[in-house]
């Protein structure tokens, strides 16, 4: 026997498994809608022009690669705060936000989870049912008990808001509530501004800790619009957490650029919180990498590049919306009787199609159309060339 004889094989990541199955499928007409990535109309992963410009500047500057500070590039952290809370917001100008650069949005969640575990070791973490697959495992691995609050209502094709708010109102003080700030993954259904007000009120009256996961800012309605929910938590005077990801909004998946911001009641609180976040980082990976954050900081702080980014981001957002409208219209034209109007009500990259496991499996096996068994498809992987085949396949299994 070796040290590792008793090590069990861990279960495969279900979405990566789907990708492997897709790659092995000889069907020339196959379409991969299982991924969580934005592709352009040619089915390609975009490299944004603003990113290329910033990279040229960085190469020309030929800067040496020393260690970054533990909390990352200062200009980057400031830019993240500006995007999340608004550059002119009182909370930022008063120094009440502690922001650190993180290894993607996942890294931001993990730093926040590790810090929360020290603060509030016995808290339960509530995630939405369903949620991004990694939320549960990430908070469990940080040592928390993870439960869910109701979110998706399959019969209604929408959010079970009564169930959600009842769960929050019934949660014990200190419970950590993970909320998708916009573009809910996997369902595509967001709650309304009035419903957010009720969530904020429940968090406040029950003394809960909100952890907003903002992985898709700019993919729903716009940068400001998608960030509007943050203002509500600030206005209520709450201490809360926000993780940021630039993986999708800059198409910088592999550079691992994200952040964590903690909104505090005072500058003094923020200073002490920051010192603790730095310990979490220091003992995990010491300090973050330079390249991706340098690109994002350059783009966000250079007016011409910033304008270019906002335009390119709007381009991605608009294309997704066009695909939603086209999918809805074409399904109707193909004779699908079921009301599909929910497709254009959903936001962001994903759509819960309402298709059953059996239907999703038939789509894969008979037509080479790969979505997740839950019925989730990535609308951002549809394009003008593959949409008709996808619609025809869905019509056949409906
Ligand atoms: N949170 C949600 C809801 C996501 O959908 C994702 C990515 O798919 C992440 C976090 C992770 O983002 P990143 O790839 O930047 O770590």
Automatic annotation (TrEMBL):
GO MF annotations, alphabetized: identical protein binding; L-tyrosine-2-oxoglutarate transaminase activity; pyridoxal phosphate binding
Entry's EC annotation: 2.6.1.-
Biological processes annotated in GO: L-phenylalanine biosynthetic process from chorismate via phenylpyruvate
Names of required cofactors: pyridoxal 5'-phosphate
Keyword annotations from UniProtKB, A to Z: Aminotransferase, Pyridoxal phosphate, Transferase
Keyword Nucleus set for record: no
Keyword Ribosomal protein assigned: no
PROSITE patterns: AA_TRANSFER_CLASS_1 (PS00105)
Subunit composition and interactions: Homodimer.
Descriptive protein name: Aminotransferase
Organism: Piscinibacter gummiphilus
